[in-house]
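Workshop exercise sheet. Pairs work together: one partner reads the sequence aloud, the other fills in the structure field after running the prediction. Swap roles for the next sheet.
Pair: D.N. / O.F.
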Amino acid sequence: MATSSNPNFKKSILLRVRVAFLMVCVFALMVVYRIVDIQYFSNQEWMERASQRYLKLGEVPAPRGNIYAADGSLLLTSLPFYRVAFDPSRSVNEDPRNSRRVIFEEGIQALCDSLSGFFQDESPRYYRERIERARLDSSQYLLLSRKLITHEEKLRMMRWPIFRAGQMKGGIIFERVEERHRPFGYLARRTIGVEDTVRDKQYGLEHTFNGVLAGQPGKALFSRLPGGFWKPLKDQNELDPVDGLDIHTTLDVSMQEVVETALMDAMKTHMAHKGTVVLMEVATGEIKAMASLTAEKKKGELTGKYWEGLNYAVGESTAPGSTFKLASLMAILEEAKGLGLDDTIHVGTGIHKFYDKEMKDDHTYEDGEGVLTIQQVLEKSSNVGVARLADRYFSSDAGGQERFYAYLAKAGLTRPLGVQLAGEGQPKIKNPSNPDERWSGVTLPWMSIGYELDLTPLQVLALYNGVANDGKVLQPLLVRKVSKGGQSINNYEAKVISPKMCSQETLQKLRVCLEGVVERGTAKGIRSEAYGIAGKTGTAKILENGEYIQEYYTSFAGFFPATNPRYSMIVAIERPQSEKKYGSAVAAPVFREIADKIFLLDPVLVAQFPETSKKLRLQAGRGHIKDLMAVAQSVGLDVDSSVVRLGPTFVSASQSSKGKVKMKPLTFDRNKVPDVQGMTLRDALPILEGLGLKVEVSGNKLGKVKRQSQQPDVLLLPGSVMRLYME
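Structure field:
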C-alpha cells in the first residue's frame, strides 16, 4: 500500500501509459498513411503487382478468318482444340447411399491407364505420381499434357473415371484453344503461309493479310493459376472479340496438286537444289497454282528430300538467262522499225568479243560464216545474235542505253509487281541515267542475254503473260475478295501495269518467234501434236562469290495454247545435279507435263479442243480395257494388241511418239492401298470394295478420280474409309 502511494511510482505508470498511447497513435497514423498512400499514390504500382501475380486485364483472341480456294474449298480454317488440365482437390462425390466417399482412390488407376494409353508419352505410374503429388500439395491446377485434343476426343475423355463427375466434382478442366487447320495438308502451304509471332514464322497470305484475317481481339479479366497459366474470368467489363474476315484466293486445288506433283518429280529426277512453278490465267492475271521446293541437306549433302522453303517465285531475284531475250528482242524490234523476222544477223563462228570480254553460243560455226535470221536468233537462243543486235541499235549514240531501259520500263520490268504477298524480290536492272549504277562497254550485251540483272520468276512470267495477253501486262492476282459471313467486303482485280507493252506489229513477231522455239528451236522436245505451245528456254550460269561457276539456273517460260492463249507458266529449277543441265531438258518437260494435265482439268479447253482432250486423256488413261479401247478407236488411234490378247480387266494406257497406244495390265496387291486416280467411278468402286474398303465419293460421279484420301501403296486396312474426289 505504501508503494502505491509513492509519487514516483504513479509518475512511472503515467509515463508508460502516455508512451503506449503515443505508440498507438503513431501506429494508427502509419496505418492511415499507408492506406492513403496505397489508395492514392502507389495505387498503380500495387495494381500492377497484383495483376502480375493474381489478376490481369488481357486480350481475348478473335476467331481468325478462313482462306478459300477459287472453287470455295477450304484451304485454311480455325478448329477448336482443347488443353487438358486437372484439379485433384475436387475429386469427391456423393454416392447413392448418401455417405461421402472419395472417388479418387477408386478411379485414379483407371484414369492414369487411360491417360497413358491416349497420349502415348508416359507410363500410368508417371501420371499417378504427378496427380497424387499435386493432390498432397493442395494444387488446384495440373496440366496433364501439352498435346491438344479434338472435340470428339474431349467427349470420349468425359466418360473416363473421375473425369465423368465433371469439373466441379471430378476436377476435369478443358481449356479451349483455336488452332489453324489445313484440310488439304501441305498443298500450297508456302503460299497460304503462317502467322506465328511467338515462333517468328510469318509468311504467305496468313502474314500478308493478317490485319484482315485476325479480326479485333476482345478484353477480359484473367486469373493466374498454378503453373503459370491464365484463365479468363467472366466480367461485366469484358469486350467481345470481333471475328476475322475471310479471304478468297485464285488458287485451283486440282491445278495446284498437278503443279506440286510435277515439280517434286522433276526435283527428285534431277537432284536439284531449288525449284518453282507458277501457273497464271492469261486474261485475268489470276495465279491458279504456285509451288516452290528446297532440297534438304545434311552435312552439305542432299538427302533426296524436299520441303517448301522460301517462295522463290516471289521472294528471290536472280539472273534469268535466256528467257530475258524476249524482252531484248522486243526492244530491238520496237527500235528498228521495219526489221523483219527474215532479216539476218552475222554471228561469225558463234564467238564474239565485246571489248575485252568473250561471248559464246552453244552452237559454233567453224567456217566463221554463221548467219541467222532474226527469228532463228530466238529459236536457237543465240547469245551472239541477240547481243550484236542490241549493240547495233542501242550503242550507236549516247541515248541508246536510255532507250533500251525505257522499253524495259514500259513492259513493267524495272519495278516490283506489287503482288499480294509480302517479301517480293526487287528487280535489279541498271538505269543508265543513274550515275550510281555503273555501266561499262559490256553491260548492254550481257544484259540483253539475261546477265548483269536480276528478276524474280514471277516478274519474268508477267512479261510472257503480257505477250500472250495482246500486250497488256497485268499485276499477278492471288486474292479475289475479302468477305464476312458470305458477303463481299472488298473485291480485287489485277491492276494493269502496262496497257500496251509494245506495238501490235512487234507483238505478233514475238509470238511467232516463241512458237518457233517449240516447233523448231531449243524446246522442240516438248512440241505437242495435240495443241500449240509458245515459250522460251533459259539456262544461266550461277554467280557465286563474284565468279560464274559450272552450276546452272534452268527455266522455261511460255503460254498455251499458242493460239488464243489461256494460261501462262514459268518453270525454274536451280542447280540440277543430273546429266541434264539445260532449260530445254530440265525445265521445259515439266512445263509440257503440267500443260497436258491442265488441259484436261479446264472445261473451257476441253470444250474448245474436244479431240485433243480425248487424246490427252488417253495418254494418262487408267481403267477398264474395253473403255480405253473404245476411246482409242473413237479418235482413230492404233492399239498395240499384244496386251489385249492376255485379257486383263484393268490396264494403263499411254501413247508412243509414233501415235500407237500401248497398254499395260494393272495388278493390285491385296495388302496395299491401290492407286485408282485417273479411273472412272465405275472402274474404281469394284477394285476398292473388293479389297474391303468403304468408299465415300465427293464431286462429279461421272468424272474421274482426281485424288484419293489414302495414299497408294501404304498398308491396307480392311474396313477403313477411302474417300474419292472426282473431277
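Discussion prompt: DSSP finds 25 helices and 32 strands in the chain. What would you look at next?
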